[in-house]
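U., I forgot to send this yesterday:
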Amino acid sequence: MTTLDADPGPYTFDLASTALVIIDMQRDFCEPGGFGEALGNDVGRLRVVIEPLRRVLAAARAVGMTVVHTREGHRPDLTDCPPAKLNRGHPSLRIGDPGPKGRILIRGEYGHDIIDELAPVPGETVIDKPGKGSFHGTSFGELLAERGITSLIVTGVTTEVCVHTTVREANDRGYECLVLSDCVGSYFPEFQRAGLAMIAAQGGIFGWVAPSPEFLTALDTAPNLQEVAS
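Result:
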């Protein structure tokens, strides 16, 4: 078992039963000229997570951790997009409409894919999800169960939407979640602050929060799973 300092208290995990989850680091959300920027958002507020997340991803790969990426998006015919989601937002910038990087939030479009800096490598799972949470309408839960995963290191965007929804879903299912504070981002600074505070409030109502250097230091003392397996 490995332990690190976190809010509201020490977070302990077994590397073999822990997965790094990277939520929705997609071009449309994170790149200049994408859907997020077209809505008037400052994508620089999301891009600040890329470098710390790259370091975390490299370290996780080095020790053989399970890595799971997610992408929010829908089938081209939109049959998995309910009206409550489809009909919100600016009338000319809705899901399925032509966007700066292809049809907005449609699977297979350029903007839907993960940014080059964090692109998955062979052996890493990519979960395509039709909602904000990673469990809804996906095989995410089955994947975690098959691999014996009980702890999640959660990263990605945005803090108050897809990250929060996934953490809440995971908490209800019994997973112990650690959110890396500098590896999650929001377009809105006040949402970032409140979103992180809510996770760790009242003794960790949804999980733990820590900066990525604490996690990286903990990994330095953890066994390399690939060497253990061999």
